[in-house]
Design goal:
The protein contains no helices and eleven strands.
Length: about 120
């Protein structure tokens, strides 16, 4: 079993910053990536940023230059530092852990943490 514990969401004003954290525990090996997706009301869940075991990162175009993903491999924890937040960043942010299992990719999801950017 795998558990993902998220923290760090909240209500901020435009231009402010937040940091999200996600700690993974349980039967964790063969990690392909850890990262964050987000889902706004009435929209699909979209990738925000992911980081591989080797440290390679992928960002959504809309967050490049404002968000930074990092990872502590020893703690199986991923962080998302968000700067210059905009109202359009408002969404539920979900931690994602992708593992390689039996020749396929297996995704685990956190429960989600709300980020609201509003004046």
């Amino acid at each position: 079993q795998v558990q993902l514990e998220e923290s760090g969401g909240g209500l901020v004003q435009p231009g402010e910053s937040l940091r999200l954290s996600c700690a993974a525990s349980g039967s964790i090996f063969a990690i392909l990536h850890m990262g964050w997706y987000r889902q706004a009301p009435g929209k699909q869940r979209d990738l925000v940023a992911v980081i591989t075991s080797g440290g390679s990162t992928t960002y959504a175009n809309s967050v490049k230059g404002r968000f930074t993903i990092s990872r502590d491999n020893a703690k199986n924890t991923v962080y998302l530092q968000m700067h210059n937040l905009k109202p359009e960043d408002t969404a539920v942010y979900y931690c994602n852990l992708r593992l390689a299992r039996f020749g396929a990719d297996l995704d685990y999801w956190g429960q989600g943490t709300q980020v609201t950017v509003s004046s």
